Amino acid sequence: MAKPIIKNPDPMCNNLDYLRDLLGNDTQAMQDIVREIKDQWADDARELAAAVLSRNIAEMKRLLHRIKSTFSPLGPDHLLYKEIANAAEMMPTVEAAGVDMRFWSDLILNLENEVSDLKVATT
After folding, report:
1. Exposed/middle/buried for 18, CB within 10 Å: 0-12, 13-18, 19+?
2. pLDDT by position in tens, the chain (length 123)
3. Cα(59)–Cα(120) distance, rounded to whole angstroms?
């Protein structure tokens, strides 16, 4: 199974420009949305880890869809959104080959690091 996408050095994949454009550069609204993304991710990460541990593929698919929606305000080119979209696209392979615990553990850890790095610049 493929490895999770690792931090992309391209700033286009890690910035909040899409969200900034979406909200007309409203810094307070951006901070609110980033806070909500972080709060929702905390719940989703626990639930996804539990689904992976129990090898509950149906629940994993449901959670990936929900997480993709959570990350959607960041834009389709943001690393977090791409990682989740990539994982969701791999689910037919997971159904056929089984749950690769190492892959999913690495993915959740990478996402956790990326989410914790989300910050709104207050310039």
Report:
1. middle
2. 444 444 545 555 568 989 999 999 999 999 999 999 999 999 999 999 999 999 999 999 999 999 999 999 999 999 999 999 999 999 988 888 888 899 999 999 999 999 999 998 876
3. 32
> How many C-beta atoms lie closer than 10 Å to residue 56's C-beta?
14
Q: 27-53 and 57-71 are packed helices; what angle lies between their axes, rounded to 10 degrees?
A: 170
Chain-centre distance for alpha carbon 111: 6
Tell me how far apart the alpha carbons of residues 97 and 48 are, in angstroms, rounded to a whole number.
18
| CA-CA-CA-CA torsion sign (31, 122, 71, 94) | negative
DSSP 72: G
